[in-house]
Specification:
Blueprint (H helix, E strand, L loop, with lengths): L2 H15 L16 H7 L16 H11 L2 E6 L5 E4 L2 E4 L17 H22 L6 H14 L1 H5 L2 H7 L3 H5 L7 E2 L2 E2 L1 H14 L36
Antiparallel strand pairs: 1-2, 2-3, 4-5
Helix pairs in contact: 3-5, 3-9, 4-5, 5-9
Length: about 240
């Protein structure tokens, strides 16, 4: 199934089943969460212990915005069965996946609960790998970044090295490098990295109604391609 066909199918599902999928929400290419792929492949076997540190609403809303929402299970562009706010059910198509553990259509609250649980490994990775004090904005931005690119990529990244060296300006400049997926520069990743960099440097990203406002970071995400971009699949 092509991405265009998938997009049309999901919009049709939203109209017939009450899902909140919309054309606007599929403005960008969706990339599967790197850390969820690591979990499903068995790369992260130990479940993180509950931590005291919570994640900013700005960070959660950022992740929700770029992951997209569907109350119905669907195959993402790579063919992974997905539901809710980008929750990976299995590394195979939904037609061959046991979905009995989900009440379908998924409620928004259930989707948010899944997302908070899904981000647990990313938050745990940031707390474990970062050796310096982080502001809540820095912690939220890095949690979103790790959720997208995976713990392994973060662990070996220049971004992490700069963070641990207290070079936060240098670290912020690293976000725009991570915009390739399978060799293709994706608009969604470009703007997501701009938003994460904005959050990392202290910008709130929420409007007066408390909703994520992409306009606060779109200009930061519209930079020209960097000379040494990184593929989120391969890492550095």
């Amino acid at each position: 199934m092509t991405y265009t066909t998938l997009k049309a199918a999901l919009i049709s599902i939203s109209l017939t089943c009450g899902s909140s999928v919309s054309a606007q929400e599929f403005e960008f290419e969706r990339t599967a969460s790197g850390i969820q792929i690591e979990i499903l492949k068995g790369g992260l076997t130990a479940a993180p212990a509950p931590g005291d540190r919570t994640i900013l609403k700005s960070a959660i809303e950022l992740i929700k915005h770029f992951e997209g929402w569907s109350a119905m299970p669907y195959d993402d562009p790579v063919g992974y069965c997905t539901i809710g706010y980008g929750h990976l059910v299995a590394l195979k198509r939904c037609s061959t996946t046991d979905l009995s553990g989900f009440d379908i259509p998924l409620t928004d609250q259930s989707g948010q609960d899944l997302l908070l649980n899904d981000t647990g490994h990313a938050r745990h990775a940031v707390e474990r790998l970062v050796s310096v004090n982080l502001t809540d904005h820095q912690f939220g931005a890095l949690s979103s970044f790790v959720f997208n690119v995976g713990e392994g990529n973060f662990a070996s990244s220049t971004l992490l090295k700069l963070v641990n060296a207290n070079d936060f300006n240098g670290a912020a400049a690293q976000f725009p490098r991570w915009t390739l997926s399978r060799g293709v520069r994706l608009k969604g990743l470009v703007i997501r990295r701009g938003c994460e960099a904005a959050l990392f440097t202290g910008r709130d990203l929420l409007n007066a109604q408390g909703a994520f406002d992409q306009d606060t970071c779109t200009l930061l995400g519209a930079a020209e391609p960097v000379e040494d971009p990184i593929d989120i699949i391969e890492g550095e």
